[in-house]
Amino acid sequence: MEIIAKTRMIRISPTKVRIVADLIKKKNVNEALGMLSFMPQKASFILKKLLNSAIANAKQNKYIDIDSLYVKNIMVDAGPTLKRFLPRAMGRATKIRKRMSHITMVLDES
Predict the structure, then answer these.
(1) Residues 6+ apart with CB under 8 A from 86
(2) Per-residue pLDDT tens over the stretch 14-36
(3) How far is Cα 85 from Cα 2, in angstroms, rounded to an integer?
(4) Whole-angstrom Cα distance, residue 31 to residue 73?
(5) In angstroms, rounded to a whole number, what is the distance separating the alpha carbons of residues 97 and 110?
(6) Rounded distance, CA 77 to CA 99, Å?
């Protein structure tokens, strides 16, 4: 049985999150938590919080063994982009795109 946890509108670029997400895909839940605890990236803190939320969702079902769960899939999609402008030389302006992410984590029993 699949357990799904989602987080939306996270103010970090999807490409930065995908780097960390690919490392914990197909890993056991306990192993993934250990890996995320010692990574220095901001995305690891966000994914660890989401993984704990998915584990809490799994605990609501009494027929699921928490120790047998693994990360089946992580989808990191682009959310809306905040568009800002930075003044440059000779009256020009440069676009600054502040990107957001939508993250969906799927756990399953092995």
Answers:
(1) 93, 94, 95, 96
(2) 999 999 999 999 999 999 999 99
(3) 43
(4) 15
(5) 40
(6) 11
Report helix, strand or coil for 37: helix
How much of the chain is in helix, strand and coil states, percent to nearest 5? 40, 35, 25
Strands 82-87 and 69-78: unpaired
pTM for the whole thing? 0.92
CA triplet 57, 59, 64: central angle to 5 degrees? 110
Q: Which residues contact 40 (CB under 8 A, 6 or more apart)?
A: none
What is the tens place of the pLDDT at every residue in 54-109?
Answer: 999 999 998 999 999 999 999 999 999 999 999 999 999 999 999 999 999 999 99
